[in-house]
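A student in our group prepared the protein record below, which I am reviewing. Here is the record exactly as it was handed to me.
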Amino acid sequence: MSPLEDRERREQRASRTRRASEQAAAPSAARAPAAAKTAARPRRQPTAPPRSDARAVPPPPPRAASRQAAPRVAIVIDDLGQRISHLEELASLGIPLTIAVIPGLPATAATVREASRLGIEMLLHQPMEPREEGGKNPGEGVLQVAMSGEEVRRRLRQGLAAVPGAVGVNNHMGSRFTEEPAGLGALMAELKSNGLFWLDSRTTSATRGAEIARSASVPAIERDIFLDATVEPQFVRGQVRRLLATARERGAAVGIGHPHPETIAALRELRGELLGSGVTLVPLSALVVSPAAGTAVAASLARGGRRGGSPAAAVSP
């Protein structure tokens, strides 16, 4: 073999070796971009555990299924009918009130007409026999323990005729009459036939008014607070605030006052406090509820007046 041929063979072997090396390196080069891309992608960081002080922020409270109704108060002013100025002063207060009108007084008719025009709720404030008769004059048409049931009903009808539009009846005096079941039974029978409710003023701790009303299926409610048992401004203010506190505790409360200048002045002074107290002022009928029907007496009255109302058991706030 000549030197030239030997050199050509060596060059051919070297060329084959280079091609083999290049072919072996090609797959690695093809994979290089993907590998580079993988290396360039940032690694996902693990989720950090909650901070140890996260418990300092409380979770949202659970949503209540229903919101409890605001406490309610009804204020009843007794003894209307002596002077029309009493009604005018009460109306000027600009707060919901229920008035109780005594039949047979000089301004009874005028009071009823004006209250009806103004849309002020009225009760018949029916005179009834007191326990101590000396020095006390219950007024015309007084209901007495010794009367027959028919006479009680007749006198009550006379009282209702003098206060047309009354939605209920409460007792004027009556500490003796409201302790006796017989007379109360006749009274409740007349209330039921007229679709009226009973407010027991509780002039005696031994009253059986609510008990007898319950047995006769007459809607009823009882007084919680006397606003002016002592006719003195500071006392009345304290009683009004006590009335609000009672409503917050029980959900509802009834206060009874009288058209004394001191009482009206205290209500005027506390008007802002009453309206901003979070306690809703309502007419008395809004608090008288029929447990059997589950409806308020006020709704029944709005649907059809006082007659023919559905019977209801007596309740108190």
Notes: Residues 185 and 212 are 6 Å apart (CA to CA). Confidence is low (pLDDT under 50) at residues 25-67, 303-317. The chain is about 40% helix and 15% strand. The chain has one domain: 72-304.
